[in-house]
Design a protein that fits this description.
- The protein is an alpha+beta fold.
- The chain has one domain (24-110).
- Helices cover 36% and strands 32% of the residues.
- A five-stranded mixed barrel has the order 1-2-3-5-4.
- A hairpin with a 2-residue loop joins strand 4 (91-99) and strand 5 (102-110).
- The longest helix has 21 residues, at 2-22.
- The chain is globular.
Length: 111
């Protein structure tokens, strides 16, 4: 009986984990640091974005909406910026979910 209860708890925990991942959506826009979100995004440089990492990052979508990243998203954005060879026009695709004004990030790729 105790063994069945533990197995059921594991199954429940795994189903919750996988169902949360199923709600992730894909968002496209321009990756930008929070300090420069109001500037000309096409000319915003990778160097500037890396230099302003302390303020965090977000995604500006085609409709002009700015979605601020959660802390894990900030780390993933910084890693993507350091890995890219692009110098400006930081178009990106972000997988995650929106909670209020925050984008909980699962992955960031610079296009």
């Amino acid at each position: 009986m105790c063994y069945k209860l533990i197995s059921m708890k594991k199954i429940l925990a795994l189903s919750i984990l996988f169902s949360a991942a199923a709600f992730a959506e894909s968002y496209s826009g321009t990756l930008v640091d929070t300090m420069c979100k109001g500037k000309d995004l096409a000319t915003h440089t990778t160097k500037c974005a890396i230099g302003c990492a302390k303020g965090g990052y977000g995604l500006v979508t085609a409709d002009g909406k700015f979605w601020k990243f959660d802390e894990k998203g900030n780390a993933k954005a910084l890693a993507a910026l350091k890995a890219t060879k692009k110098e400006s026009d930081l178009k990106a695709t972000v997988s995650g979910s929106i909670d209020g004004e925050m984008l909980t990030v699962e992955s960031v790729s610079i296009d």
